[in-house]
Amino acid sequence: MRIRSFFWVLAAGITLSGCVEKEIIDDVNIEMGVGYDFVEDDKIEGTVMIPIFNPDKKIGNFTYSATAASSRDLIQEVQRKSAQPLVTGSLEIALFGEGIAKKGIREFTDAFERDASIGARVYFAVADESAKSILSGTYGNRGNAVHLSQLIKHNMETRNLPITNMHLYLFDLYQEGKDPYLPILKKVEPEIIDIVGIALFKDDKLKSELPPDKMFFFKLLTDKFSEGAYKLDVGKEKVVIKDLDSKHKIKLTKRDPYNITVEIKIKGLIREYTGHIVTPEIIKKIEKEFEEQVNKEASAMIKDFQEQGIDPVGFGQFIKSKTRGFDFKRWEDEYKNLTVNVKTDMIITEVGIVE
Amino acid sequence: MRQLFKKKLMQDIEKEAARQDTEGQKPEQYLNEHEWEKALLKSHDFKRTFYVNQKTEKKFCFSFISTLVDESILQNNALPYLLEGELTEIVDVKSLIPIADVQVSDHNEDIETKLFNGYVLLTLEGEEKYFAFIAAQKEVVRNVAQPEVEFSVIGPKESFVESLDHNLNMIRKRVPVKELIIENYTVGSLSKSGVAILYIDGITNKDNVNTVVQRVKDIEFDEITDSSYIVQLISDNQNSPFPQLLDTERPDRIAAILAEGKVAILVDGSPHALIGPTTLVEFFGSFEDYFLNYLLSSFFRLVRLFAVAFSILITPIYVAALSYHYELIPKDLLSTLITSRREIPLPPILEALFLELTIELLREAGARLPTKVGQTIGIVGGIVIGTASVEAGLTSNVLLIIVALAALASFTTPVYRMGNTIRLLRFPFLFFAELWGMLGIVVSFSFLLAHLLKLTSLGRPFLEPLYPPRITDFKDAIIRLPFTMQYNRPQYLRTENPVRFSEKKAKQKKDIDE
Amino acid sequence: MQQPVPERLQVSPFLVLYLIMSMQIGIGVLGYQRIIAKDAGYDAWISVLAAGLSIHIIIWMIYKICGTVEGDIVAANAYVFGKKIGNVISSVFIFYLLIFALAVLRTFIEVIQVWMFPEISTFWYSLVFLLLSVYIVFGGFRTVTGIAFFCIVLPSYLLLTFGFALKYAEYRNLLPIFDHSLKEFATSAYNMSLTYIGFEIPLFFYPFIKDAPKSQKWAHLGVFLTTIIYTVLAIITFTYFSEAQLAKSIWATLEMWKIVSMPFVERFEYIGIANWNLIILPNICIALWGGSMILKRAYKLRQKKGVILLALICLVAVSFFDTRAKINLLNDWTAKIGFAVTYVYIPILFIATLIAKKVKNKNEN
Fold this sequence. Notes:
- The complex is a heterotrimer of chains A (about 350), B (about 525) and C (about 375).
- Chain A is of the alpha/beta class and about 350 residues long.
- Chain A folds into two domains: about 25-210; about 225-355, 2-Layer Sandwich (GMP Synthetase, Chain A, domain 3), CATH 3.30.300.
- Chain A contains eleven helices and 14 strands.
- In chain A, a hairpin with a 2-residue loop joins strand 8 (about 180-190) and strand 9.
- Chain A starts with a helix and ends in a 5-residue tail after the last strand.
- In chain B, a hairpin with a 5-residue loop joins strand 9 and strand 10.
- Chain B is elongated, with a radius of gyration of 31 Å.
- Chain C has 18 helices and no strands.
- In chain C, about 75% of the residues lie in helices and about 0% in strands.
- The longest helix of chain C is centred in the last third of the chain and has 41 residues, at about 325-365.
- Chains in contact: A-B, A-C, B-C.
- Chain A: Pfam families: Spore_GerAC (PF05504), Spore_GerAC_N (PF25198).
- Chain A: InterPro entries: GerAC_N, Spore_GerAC-like, Spore_GerAC-like_C, Spore_GerAC_C_sf.
- Chain A: It is a lipid-anchor.
């Protein structure tokens, strides 16, 4: 009897005071996209995008914007405007306006890092012009957040965009001898968003931008395994090559000064060819041409990085892994004098179903 | 010859009487003064008729309970012979009438029991000490029907009936060996139910048998009407929602488990026999599994186990995910869930409870009503109430699907008792899911796990072969391996003879095309 | 020498594997990577391996001690120091087990508070959890072992989920190997204490093992498996995080779940943390069982009362640790006491037992 009454007290106690705050899915505003822009007077405009689930299964969007001096105040401002509590757990994409990115985004990424409810697969991107304008458009019928994240995802998996997400950004940011990079999004038409290049960071600050036609070579250097497509001129003819599987290997060939060889292996197939017939000779020629192109472009790109003092490929980290007692203080100068050779090996495996 | 027999019989009876005397009984006490008779005379079905033998003109008297006695036996097989034969003393009855079970006795205290077992008491004028019992039981037994709860498409179609003798007959036929022991006990101060405990001598562990016997003997209850009473009265832990003895209505299953080395308990008047010791996984094996190829039956067992997990967990997971863990839900599903819930005023827990209770009501109503009406209720309830409540905005259609699936899954459990338990288990899980989301589900799962770990069936661990882990017993647990690999009896039964049949050691390995 | 335990209460020797693993794997594993990398950097996985190997010596000593005295820690202390002093020393172990249980429970609640439910009440959750533990311990050692078994087997699938992090692995992080001094390696190995302790439990349940000396190989195997799990997990973590990033991650193991994506589950860490409930359950149960057992053996307190007493102390004490700093302090102290018990006290007891045995043998002769 005593035990039974004890259990009643227990059950009552747990129900009354053991409860935790609920986040019932239709009683919260699920923040799926967020963007930060610089407005005048050193103020920041934050935009939060939530999906609206209509009865006809179409997903609309709604954005809240607020202006404040710091990102902390922004959250307060937006929460105040929201009718239901704003929850961050399902965040898909965070956009940083170019102005913000140039000043450094650590302040914002720190909040994402600290918040246990935010996943590591959130996409970060730099917004050409303004993040607000991108978030407040309407793209596709699955909601803006899903649209944007799938846009980035598909371009990373099969096209020329190097793989990035919140985890990789933070990994690169904190990794000594490596600098992060993010895709740049732009609203090209009212209903279309395009990836217009890669933003290269020094620490957390935007340093320079890479145009879309260089993205293919950039991806070859940064990603462990990559896929992509590239259009090449061989003589008069044009050929589109689909890169199926490529790997790169970095080798330290000499120290003092450091000399590095990057070996790139590409397996590809021909997607389009404007010439009449693809003969083995032509394939050989295309391969050779392509190898040269890659060598040239990649070397030039690396040179450019060295001049700007950024290291998105992670040569510093690479040399550190080969050297005991590596000193990063000296690396700053050594990086400028680093010699990098790019060697490419290209194999065309298939030419499609016609010759 | 007849004289000799009579003499021997008389000697036996006297000897017995002498034994009774020394124990302080009073055989000379006159019948009519007995208390049972006074009490019985109040009932209208107690009959006493007097006749006179035509040859010796001795008066004799039949006393019996007419509702328990088949009077045609008396009329055809007893009365003509007793009237026309030479009936001088009570032992003559044995030789006169062509009925096998005729007993001459002087035990007054037996009379009551015998009368209630359908015997006719024969008393003879002048014989004050001795009297005879003539067996003339009225057998009111329904025909052997098809098993309903454990129906199988393939395999025997016999099921137990309400008569212990019939049931034992069905088992004996299947295990015709002298090692099959049937012990009989009477339980219940009012019902006097016969309880038979069956086991195979030389296979079954004596500890298990003794445990059962001891517990059956210790039962203190007045009216035992079914084996379900016995289950609840002899279970190891009577506060557990889990049945700790398997019940079956199939005589073939009893034969099979006897061969495995388990103990069976049959109760007079109950068409369900009990099996012990048993394990949790056994409740999810249908007997039909043994009639199918082992691949099929293993697959079905896995499906059933999955169904159980699904049935218990899915509604709590729904409640937990929608109340606390929106992050868990994939983006595509999120829109479906939110759209389906946008009009619903109730929080997920009430919505879930509402539907779960509706399903329980439907089940109860279906179970209480006659079969045909029950089916209608099922359809009306399932379709009409379900659709209507979604349209009225009381519940979301996603949850309706989930709850219906969970209910369906709970009905796949082959043992009815276990199915009920599983439906009950959902509610504590729901409570904790509402309280602490996923964490609550794991907490309630821990409680369940701890409870199952502590459970025993006749002192044997209930979770075996999962814990204590015994790999060899997995051959007939979650999956079923082919019969050729079932050469040992389950370990947890601790059988006296663990070998079912000798494993063929020298299996010839053939090459291709040999 | 103590009264032998009846066979129906004993468990099979191979279950020692699960007992030891379940006691070792608790809350330390959620964030040990950062602590060990503080000193030895990304070479720390070597320290994990080395520390794990050193445990085998202690296990060997434990079995030698228990084998010599044919009993548990209380018997060993009584054997060496005499009944009175022995019992006093044994009581220290009650305190050790208590603080162990407390640290595990409180840290897990902290994880829940940080990752899932910031508002969850420490008191009510502890109450439910301790009730569950008491309920289990009331079932006796066999039930406790059963829980240890299931709580290793059921959540073992979690190991696979760390495979998702492999996709992002940067193996170059681990290079160059041996880039740290011996002292740094040693500090890092010492910092593994909290994560590794728990392997000393054969001292408490030795008499409850059927054919106890045979269980030694299982104890070694258990420790070995834990070592492998910790080492592999450390390596995966080191390849997944960059060094400065890891230095900021309090619960690196949990953070790796943030990358997991499955078609039906967007975010795995909530499921993982909920599952962790199962992993810490045997920690508390074994600690409560062991503590109450010593109370019974040394002070003749009925074990039922002992368990409730210890659980109540836990319940009261757990509310005092309300900030990150205090919890950290609790964990530090648990680690220190654990280290003292396993690496200092057990070798001393081992040598003392050997001497005591010699002396006693001489006296008999």
